[in-house]
Design goal:
Length: 260
């Protein structure tokens, strides 16, 4: 494939685990041997950038080599600046990963409509579901698409018409285990119904685990074997979740190496 594969993590709502998911996918791809670049579009919080900066400091402090993407922050200078940043990595990297702010943002829209893979993490709640669709309060059937879903729907159609590229839109269901069973089934039914209308795929993501927050200061991840000390059963399960998430994204193979 010519050029880098663009992966955009986008959700106009905060608190969905978007940046945590993005950074773990980026490092998992780097661990496979792929050349990855990350552009953090959230110049306020900079969660992805700070995570990777912490990882860089840990490598220096411990004098170890860990898989790490190239990374920088887009300061919202201009659209031309964002395009130049992207072009800088386009031919030299396998993947360019964009982490967008949890709000409506013109630059987030721009990269989302030009993605190869668009990843929208949501928590399993109808508060988060409202981002992509609205449901009837009595039957929980989908009444209409949200503005965001309509935006992506139109972008996918325009993209297919102009250059023949289909945006693979994936809704990642994070924190499923913490949801009450009846609500979880209602969510599943609503997501399945909406996916048939607009054509996104659904995969399981990361559950709510303290370990993800604890690893942030060091920039380490659950695939960093030998650097985490003794792992409990819950941590091993979390590592398997990450493996399944990366597999579910079905990204193009850029290396013969396997995920650690």
């Amino acid at each position: 494939m010519a050029g880098a594969h663009h992966i955009v993590f986008a959700n106009e709502k905060g608190g969905t685990g978007k940046s945590t998911t993005a950074v773990h996918v980026a490092i998992a791809l780097a661990a496979r041997g792929a050349k990855v670049a990350c552009i953090d579009l959230d110049s306020r919080q900079r969660t992805l950038y700070r995570y990777l900066e912490n990882r860089q400091e840990t490598m220096k402090r411990r004098d170890v080599i860990l898989p790490i993407p190239d990374f920088e922050v887009f300061e919202h200078d201009s659209l031309a600046r964002l395009e130049r940043m992207t072009e800088h990595y386009e031919k030299s990297h396998d993947f360019i990963l964009f982490d967008t702010p949890g709000r409506d943002d013109q630059y987030a829209r721009f990269v989302a409509t030009r993605a190869n893979t668009l990843v929208t993490p949501i928590n399993d709640s109808f508060v988060d579901f409202d981002l992509i669709g609205q449901v009837d309060p009595e039957t929980f059937k989908v009444k209409r698409l949200s503005f965001y879903a309509e935006l992506i729907w139109e972008a996918r159609k325009a993209r297919a018409k102009t250059d023949g590229v289909t945006i693979d839109w994936i809704v990642v269901r994070n924190r499923v285990q913490s949801v009450e069973a009846r609500n979880q089934q209602r969510m599943s039914d609503a997501i399945d119904e909406l996916s048939k209308r607009v054509g996104f795929r659904t995969i399981s993501g990361l559950n709510e685990r303290v370990i993800y927050r604890e690893l942030f200061p060091s920039g380490l991840t659950l695939i960093d074997k030998g650097h985490l000390g003794q792992l409990g059963t819950a941590h091993i399960a979390a590592r398997q979740e990450l493996r399944e998430l990366v597999t579910g994204l079905a990204l193009p193979s850029r290396s013969k190496a396997e995920l650690v």
